[in-house]
Amino acid sequence: MDRRDFIKMLGLAGTSAAAYTACSAYMQEALAQSTTIEDLLTSAAECPGGKLADIEHVVILMQENRSFDHYFGTLRGVRGFGDPRPLRLRNGNPVWEQSDGARPYRLPKLQAHESGIDGETIPADSAGSVFMADPAHGYDTGLYAWNGGLMDQWKEYKDYVSFAHYTEADIPLYFKLAKAFTLCDAYFCSHNGATDSNRSYFWSGTCNGLAANAFFSSKVGPRPAWKTYPEKLEDLKIDWKFYQDGLTWTNDAFAGNYGDNTLEFFKEYGDKTTALYKKNQSVNSVLRTDANKPSQFEQDIVDDKLPEVSWIVPAEAFTEHPKYPPHFGEYYVHEILRAFAANKKVWHKTLFLITYDENGGFFDHVLPPVPPLNSGLGQVSPGIKVTSPSVARDFNSEHPDKVSGDPVEDAKYEKVKPTIPLGMGSRVPMLVISPWSAGGRVNSETFDHTSVIRFLDKWLIARGKQDAATPAFSTISSWRQAIAGDLTSTFDFSRTRTEGLDKLIAPGEKATILTDANRTSARAANLAFFTPGIADVKADAYAGKPIGTKQDKTRCEILPIGYDFQVCFRFGTHGDGKKRVEWVIRNRGALGAAFYVTPYSRTDAPSWYYSVEGVKPGGKPIEVMDYAQIANGVYEHAIHGPNGYLFEFSGDSLDAQQTQLPNIIEMKSADDGKKLQIVFEKWQTASSKLKLIDAYSGTEQVIDKAKEVSGTTTVEIATKDGWYDVAVVDGVNANNFLRRYAGHLENGKISKSDPAIGLEYDAKKRAYIGMVA
Q1: First to last CA, the chain
Q2: Please, are residues 212 and 197 in contact by the beta-carbon 8 Å criterion?
Q3: Distance between CA atoms of 432 and 147, rounded to whole angstroms?
Q4: Total domain count, the chain
Q5: pLDDT digits 0-9 by tens, 134-158
Q6: Greatest extent of the chain over all pairs of C-alpha atoms, in Å
Q7: What pLDDT is attached to residue 483?
Q8: Is position 225 within any domain?
Q9: Choosing a second label site near 414 at 20 to 30 A (CA), which of 54, 263, 655, 771?
Q10: How many whole angstroms separate alpha carbon 493 and alpha carbon 432?
């Protein structure tokens, strides 16, 4: 069916269920075959190498309620379902295998919905068109599912619907964008809760402890009154605009903006005489209502009148918030992309960001960075300020002030508020679309919603619109400034050649519209949403197989990021004279990093949290140190960090042979990241040996005192494009001694994704099963 036939059909369809069926089928076909992305890529190829200041327009779209694994867990090259180093639950299972048989499964694509119109049913053409139940996604259930970092209560508090996911066949446009531009696989929502608090971070850098929608859209309590970023733009006389087809929330899912323009609930936006109010509360259409007449957004692009900063806020049906399906959002995004393609000169100087306010209750397996709120929960390095819950609140506070709009309900949390972090929450998608992010690459630097503000600040400095010494936006906490990046690593301004792009073809031209008939049928389908259950989990094509087999094993290019840290282990002596295990997290890189320490040998604590700031130019490495007491001599811990980093250490402190084995005191890059150097401390006995096993190659080597030089022993192993996974075990005795290090060495250059993605790790052989040399 071509576009003209589609539009003609819509005009004749009336209000039958066939209108929605045809619309859904058309979306699936058109989005999969769309040439708009190829057109943008072809045009992007015309752009020379550039710099940040060459971006003249930033357009930002924040969608609703989808997690990263839920959308992109099967995509090649990302830390998705094939993550070779996932968190291990306390019961020994990988994090995917939750209670009561819950695990990720593809959403069924043939679910039929009662349309409510003449008794007809609407078959879904793919999972991307299924109207699905909305998982629980409040702050309370978010905290329970996270469970202090154990990540083992998702089924109990989110149910089976949480584990549904899509594939490329279901959301073809988004996969096509990810394979054409840059996708961030370590972008987290700012708050482990619902929409308004996250959107407050997005537009103002904080939620100021207000952890529920009630304090924003439900207008409980005084209006938020801290400064927002559009106010700063107004002060700087930077042109900004909201594109929205309607205002506020309405009963009609195709009208208004679903209340997602959270700024309207702030005090400063309530005065109808101000520019803030007028700009925020203006209707500037994004979608065409006439197939032959451009929307305001299109017209601004055609006329080269796009403002410097634009935010797009769609109506409910296009936000992708369940129960509305992804295809409606893809349609909306496609129309935005088609508008960019209408004026290549504007496109050549434009950045388009697509992200999601929250995970919406959908499962994601990666541990979200969180700060320790007191020393019993972990440590932060000296340059990071986290305001204690015991003193007056300020913008460095990372604990909740109010959890619920109901005072009685809120009082239930009074005792735990000082120990529960506001966030970050789960990963959500972030697509970076511009001529300088073309290439289908992945960026794994840690970001959250405050990163968008950080980027805008950096960009304004590059454009000469504010002084280079301007401090960070005042509401963004010290911890987030240290741990979340500013998005500048998502670009390749050198225009490095990208391998493997398909031949590009000519662009499409026509717009599509959704008629009243379409919308009526969709509203009816929304009332007959599908709630998945255990039967759908069991019906998954990969049921009974490792979750990693779901992910495409094709490798892709990854962008360089500024991480350079290591974790070292040592024994210490506690105040009672007993041995204890100690770990030192040493950061040598420009980026700050957050870590979890999970003690599997102890059940009296979930996890501990650590954050280390980045090193300033010319500065020395920054360290934090902590320890754990040992019960009965046995210890077993895992430390997870950014970009798939893992350090596991286990053993028996009462075993004299183990305690005489040398510790690793340094791990560093050699030969531009092609090799990893491992430095051991002085040997205590000549009879001891260590065996080092490279999980990527399967090779083993024995290390002993004979290799010691000047009191240390240095060993080199070859990496796989910077990736390493090395296990060190006792080379003489069969016991529980283990030091396992895995991660990626950065060299400032574009590299390739982890070759172990999609493979199983054999914990006995300490190697990846099926690794190709």
Answers
A1: 46
A2: yes
A3: 32
A4: 2
A5: 999 999 999 999 999 999 999 999 9
A6: 88
A7: 99
A8: yes
A9: 263
A10: 13
